Amino acid sequence: MRVRSVAYDCDVLVVGGGIVGLSTAYAITRAAPGTRVTVLEKEAGPARHQTGRNSGVIHSGIYYRPGSLKARYAVRGAAEMVKFCAEYDIDHAVTGKLIVATEREELPRLHALVQRGRENGIPVRELGAAQIAEYEPEVRGLAAIHVGTTGICDFAGVARRLGEASGAEIRYGAEAVAVDRRASLGVAVRTRAGDVVRGRVLVNCAGLYCDEVARLTGDSPGMRIVPFRGEYYSLARASLVRGLVYPVPDPAFPFLGVHLTRGVDGGVHVGPNAVPALAREGYGWGVVRPRELAGTLAWPGAWAIARRHWRYGAGELRRSLSKGAFTGAVRQLLPAVTEADLVPAGAGVRAQAVLRDGTLVDDFLIREGVRAVHVLNAPSPAATASLPIGREVARRALSALAEA
Question: Helices in 237-380 by DSSP H: which ranges?
Fold first, then answer.
């Protein structure tokens, strides 16, 4: 088959209609007007998984290693996200947040966060125990820091607007099940419905399935997505919390601990914990997909995590199975809370990339193949950082398009 005989449906074919995929489409059409972009999304609408099931926090970037993609893109992305929401009239607010130390052994980690925040260019105010009440009268702790640039927004609304503003063709209900990539021709993706979509370059933003899409393309991702479910409650007495309250995170993990978040709807979300999910879209213990679970168990990195961090995992599992244990964790920050105050809410699943040796990939991971760009690790704060991530992926996709 000759190149000129191929009828391309688009120039860039994006797999995945979450906030990163739609931001990429938006960035491509802005950087190179006239570029034809098609987005394939297996669900009936955008942002149905990680994007639409997170806590809605615009992260400041304080947690992330200085110089890392997460740090640079979160700091830049937070400011851009607020501006985008204002421009397109999407619900948002810059609320600030407290990170609270409740145990003496957490104080050095809290101080390290102050230093990290300053290295990342983030304004931070240190608070003593008595000053915490200025921001959150019901919260108790030994010390805290206030991070003023943290905010909240409707990320699903952002994703929808990105899709609309991109001018891309977005095909919903189009799950990619096979990819035929030929270096001299481009890529052809077959959907579950039997349609074939042809493009010159593929961009893989498939989130929970990004490693599988990479393998379908013929590239070895060198990692495996291990899904972790985050379970949430809603706070019945929302008046107990004014804004956002976080514990001091354990630096050994990419999870931030059970926190309190007043959302754009005025309600307060409590959570999440982090437990292994039995399916990539395993939003409850009753959701089990044997093939996906077998794939996780076959990955050596999953067992290495279990051996290395079983104590941490046992605590998370206990809080998942016991509402009393979960309440106890919340009470460390908010002593007035009771079990009756916690009303079960929807869960999310984090697409965490894990290397063969059990290393939890702690930065955004973007890799390239022939006529392909793969986003292989983009959990939180990817929603916050989605505009800079989209530009970087777009840059690589357009470079591949120019070379095609």
Answer: 290-298, 300-308, 310-321, 323-331
